[in-house]
Structure formats: C-alpha cells, structure tokens
Design goal:
Shape: globular
Number of helices: 3
Radius of gyration: 16 Å
Structural class: alpha+beta
Low-confidence stretches: 156-162
Strand content: 35-45%
Order of helices and strands: EEEEEHEEEEHHE
Largest sheet: 7 strands, antiparallel
Distance between the termini: 29 Å
Oligomer: single chain
C-alpha cells in the first residue's frame, strides 16, 4: 500500500488510471504473475490466500437493483464451478448508502456476503471461501462494477493453497474491503466506451 508523507494510504490507479482506490496492505497485482482479463484488476495478499477483484461487467437492465448482487454472485458461482446445490450460499445483502461512496455516478450499491466451495486451478480439492461482493450499478455507462473480497475459511489439505493457509500474517479485514469500496473513484468515463 502506498502511503503519503503523513502516513495516510494513497489511492492506487486501476484500469490505467481511469479508476483509483485505496488497496489494503500486502497487495500484489496478479497481472504480474498471470494473464488477467482486460475487464478485471486482481490483487492477492502476499502471505494469505485472500484476493480482491475489481471487475467491470455489462449492466443487466433486466435485473433489479435489489436482485443484482444475487445475480452476479450466482454468475460467479457458475464461473467457479460452484453452482450445484450446497456449494454456494448467500448469508446477507446490505445496501450501501450513496454518502459512503466516492463514486458519484453510482445509482445503487450493495454488499452481498456468501460462501462458495471452490477448487483452485481446476484441482479436485475444494476450499470454502467467504465472498464479500460489492455491486456498484452505473446504468449511465451500461456497467456494473463488482468488487469481490475472497476470504478462504477452510482449505483442503490437498489444495495448492494449503501452504499459505498456515501463515496468518495480518490478513485483510472487512475494514480494508470497505475502504477500497468507499475510495473507488472514477477519473476517466472513457473507460466504459
């Protein structure tokens, strides 16, 4: 995390500087390690198996604001091959007041909390991951911004993630996730085409 001379965390450019946000400590840009789709920014914790994903997806006009988080969570479950009954569960959805956001073009926002049983890198071993999913709706730009905080709760001993599960060196917290959400700022609307 970059810090200003006074010690306050500094926003980090996202999507070539079109957006910015304050990222948590120990964030590593995974695009330096593997290929990431152009519509995503993915950050991993250096010592835990936690990750944060900022993703730009098409605004789903047919999905109401109240149903948008569940819609995107179920879509993520499908991508994670966790869409079978019992492999994913929504435990709560909370609205985010506009006054808590820096993103003024957002028409509505909420945070869904749920769990998914997912395999990493197509492994057989499945890990139980708590996912905090923020959905920021920008119909003006035909875009939904998804911010996912993936926080593994139980790691299968045969998972490639088992080694990192042993180290609990200052994991990210909900405060870190909320700060990213609250500081997300749009600098260039050209990002959305």
């Amino acid at each position: 995390m970059q810090r200003a001379p006074g010690g306050a965390p500094q926003p980090r450019p996202l999507f070539g500087g079109a957006l910015s946000a304050v990222l948590p400590h120990s964030s590593v840009d995974t695009s330096q390690l593997r290929e990431i789709p152009d519509n995503q920014e993915v950050f991993a914790h250096t010592h835990t198996d936690q990750s944060l994903i900022v993703e730009l997806v098409e605004y789903q006009a047919q999905v109401s604001d109240q149903d948008a988080a569940r819609y995107h969570f179920e879509d993520i479950a499908g991508s994670n091959k966790a869409s079978e009954p019992g492999n994913f569960q929504v435990t709560g959805i909370e609205p985010v007041p506009q006054s808590d956001l820096s993103l003024s073009d957002c028409s509505s926002a909420c945070v869904l909390t749920g769990t998914q049983c997912v395999a990493k890198f197509n492994e057989e071993a499945k890990n139980t991951v708590t996912i905090h999913l923020a959905v920021l709706r920008l119909p003006r730009f035909s875009t939904d911004i998804l911010i996912s905080f993936n926080d593994p709760q139980s790691i299968s001993p045969s998972s490639s993630s088992a080694a990192s599960a042993e180290t609990h060196s200052q994991p990210w917290t909900m405060h870190d996730f909320q700060r990213l959400l609250q500081t997300l700022t749009l600098h260039d609307p050209g990002l959305f085409g």
